[in-house]
Amino acid sequence: MNKEIFNEEHILFDTTSTTQDEAFKSIASFAFEKGYVSDKEEFYNGLKQREEEATTGFKDHIAIPHSKNKAVLKPGMFLVKFANDIPWNALDQKDVKVGFALTIPEEGATEHLKLLSLIARKLIDNQFREGILNENEPNKLAEIIDEISF
Description:
Elements: E1 11-14, H1 20-33, H2 40-53, E2 57-59, E3 62-63, E4 66-68, E5 76-86, E6 96-104, H3 109-122, H4 126-134, H5 138-145
Parallel strand pairs: 1-5, 3-6, 4-6
Antiparallel strand pairs: 2-3, 5-6
Helix pairs in contact: 1-2
């Protein structure tokens, strides 16, 4: 995995969110703190707007929230592990425990649709999915995510 897109410092252990709205605020604040978005409110609104179009809840407790908007400064991927199960309206109706959050610049979206596709494809792999759900050591999580070739 390209270290500019994802590295161990892009892992957030969110211990406070209990709703999807709180999760989006947490993701937007984290992306802002890491310098990937210029305006956390704008990015938060983008996440909400994207979710209204169609759920980003994938399956087996994993979601891929993302937003392509003008607040995004550079492409990035953030792994968010939620301490609380988050009601998400996922495809399988299961609450979300892990999010792969993506910041997608307005330009270059094609490359990031490729990343979105690679993540979704990798999530079909039981060993990868279980590793992401069960591992809590940042360096081991980063190793698992590095299996995604991007």
